[in-house]
Sequence to fold (206 residues):
Amino acid sequence: MLLSSWLSVAGICALGAMSPGPSLAVVMNNTVNHGRKAGILTAVGHGLGVTAYAAATALGLAVIIAQSPVIFDVIRYLGAAFLLFIAYKTFVSTQQGQDQNSPQAEPTRNTKAPGFVSGLMIALLNPKMAIFFLALFSQFVQVDAGLGDKLILAFTAGTIDTLWYLLVAWGLATPKILSWLSLHQKKINQLFALVIALLAATIILN
Fold:
């Protein structure tokens, strides 16, 4: 594989990862409500989901999802339902013993926050990734490309996605930001719940 082709794929994957959407909202929500560890686990889970979609595309499996309206819609609606579940849990969540006066304290309302699972599910329940990687790989992967080249691209996409959301989680969990968030936790939770619910509605209506 030419270095120029790899750099092009990496750049497009970076732009795709940075674009706002359900994934960013979930990573931010988990980080704000459950702390840096939950945000990191969400980022890792999402990155693995992206890697799975990219690998499926390389192996030709994503064609089935992209070309089957029924399978595509089932995955899409499951993703919307999962987002609505997260929005509901966020809206009804309450603070539990967080030290409001310590800027060093991270949110600890739920020490068993399913960050990894939510990150993984948000990625796997987004069938548009299949279309994205089909369009991307068709431009840069030769017909006679070996399996190794295809898997390199798949892991490149997953790694870039993971690194971006790790940066988001790490940046949000700094002491100064956490101190400010702790003072506005209720309003922030309501805002996250609204944004995530609207994203779910957008998925259903599209």
